[in-house]
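Hi R.,

As promised on Friday, here is the backbone we talked about, encoded as structure tokens. Could you run it through your design pipeline when you get a chance and send me back a sequence?
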């Protein structure tokens, strides 16, 4: 189903500089747009998340600060008629260019990234820690005809099995992405999380191909960690699926799903989220050691990359996703964020190529706009 009619309201809301998020959930054709009527965005304590309702956006560093942004659902649109009503409400407002978002360029060379990886792999081989995720930034120029609304529409059409979103915060800027990884999903029947790690190219027969030892080990760290978080949160009655292969566009990943009865997570969501975030899939293992190593090794600020985001208590559901395959959108530049999990068995050249392939999730769409 085409979402062409959503594009104009996205571009209009950006002109008004209002906080908003528009998203489409995995394997669902419908979308939702959540918008505030004023520019002041509330910061919430993640541990108290069950007291709030809206669209939650947490940066990577929320693992240390414990806070996230909340876009209130003052105005909501989920179909064509509601989009038109929202446009009529917003159109008379004064345009507001807002804060200039000339995003910083922290692109490093292939040689420098591989040198960083070699240093970290050496640490891993000395067993100082088990896994660390190293990321980098790819800068791409915006074309004059670029439309944020068209970007969202194209991402939604290209990646039906991912969480596709675009959000804007007046003081923080505009981001868009197509994430394959859920952090925590809650509905009336069940709650769930997933261990998603290991990456390879998809081809029609790849589902039956065996995974490499490195990829199996990388994903097992995440599964083990999630099981520990559930136990520490007092959640013991849960079901763990066998590892499976999951496609995400031209890539596929190794996935283990954890399913939890909803009564087991009642009043524990905030604690569980803070326990899960950031998972070893996007940070490393042990988490604390990997987090501090990332702070030293990466020259850029990850900002919202490998944070989490999603609707919270909207339409009876709460669905948070890890912010992967994403880009920060500036005045004339995209900054794409990509990374790869390193273990003692990693080969730096292969890991570089993995980040190249991950970048194509957005680049293949951006280049068509």
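Update: got your reply. Pasting your designed sequence below so it's all in one thread:
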């Amino acid at each position: 189903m085409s979402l062409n009619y959503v594009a104009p309201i996205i571009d209009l809301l950006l002109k008004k500089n209002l906080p908003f998020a528009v998203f489409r959930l995995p394997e669902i054709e419908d979308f939702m747009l959540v918008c505030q009527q004023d520019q002041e965005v509330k910061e919430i304590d993640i541990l108290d998340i069950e007291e709030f309702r809206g669209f939650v956006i947490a940066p990577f560093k929320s693992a240390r600060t414990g806070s996230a942004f909340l876009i209130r659902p003052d105005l909501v649109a989920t179909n064509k008629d509601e989009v038109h009503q929202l446009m009529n409400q917003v159109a008379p407002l004064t345009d507001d260019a807002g804060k200039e978002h000339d995003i910083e360029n922290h692109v490093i060379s292939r040689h420098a990234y591989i040198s960083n990886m070699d240093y970290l792999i050496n640490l891993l081989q000395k067993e100082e820690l088990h896994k660390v995720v190293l990321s980098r930034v790819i800068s791409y120029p915006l074309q004059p005809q670029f439309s944020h609304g068209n970007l969202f529409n194209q991402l939604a059409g290209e990646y039906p099995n991912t969480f596709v979103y675009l959000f804007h915060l007046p003081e923080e800027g505009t981001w868009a992405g197509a994430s394959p990884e859920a952090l925590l999903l809650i509905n009336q029947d069940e709650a769930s999380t997933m261990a998603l790690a290991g990456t390879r190219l998809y081809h029609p027969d790849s589902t039956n191909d065996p995974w490499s030892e490195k990829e199996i080990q990388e994903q097992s760290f995440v599964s083990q960690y999630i099981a520990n978080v559930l136990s520490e949160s007092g959640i013991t009655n849960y079901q763990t699926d066998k590892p499976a292969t999951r496609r995400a566009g031209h890539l596929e990943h190794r996935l283990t799903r954890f399913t939890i009865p909803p009564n087991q997570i009642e009043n524990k969501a905030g604690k569980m989220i803070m326990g899960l975030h950031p998972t070893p899939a996007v940070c490393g293992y042990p988490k604390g050691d990997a987090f501090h190593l990332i702070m030293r090794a990466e020259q850029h600020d990850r900002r919202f990359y490998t944070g989490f985001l999603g609707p919270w208590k909207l339409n009876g559901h709460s669905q948070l996703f890890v912010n992967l395959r994403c880009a920060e959108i500036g005045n004339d530049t995209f900054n794409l964020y990509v990374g790869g999990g390193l273990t003692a068995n990693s080969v730096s050249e292969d890991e570089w190529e993995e980040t190249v392939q991950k970048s194509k999730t957005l680049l293949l769409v951006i280049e068509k706009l």
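One thing I noticed while checking it: The domain at 4-366 is CATH 3.60.120.10 (Anthranilate synthase).

Thanks again,
M.
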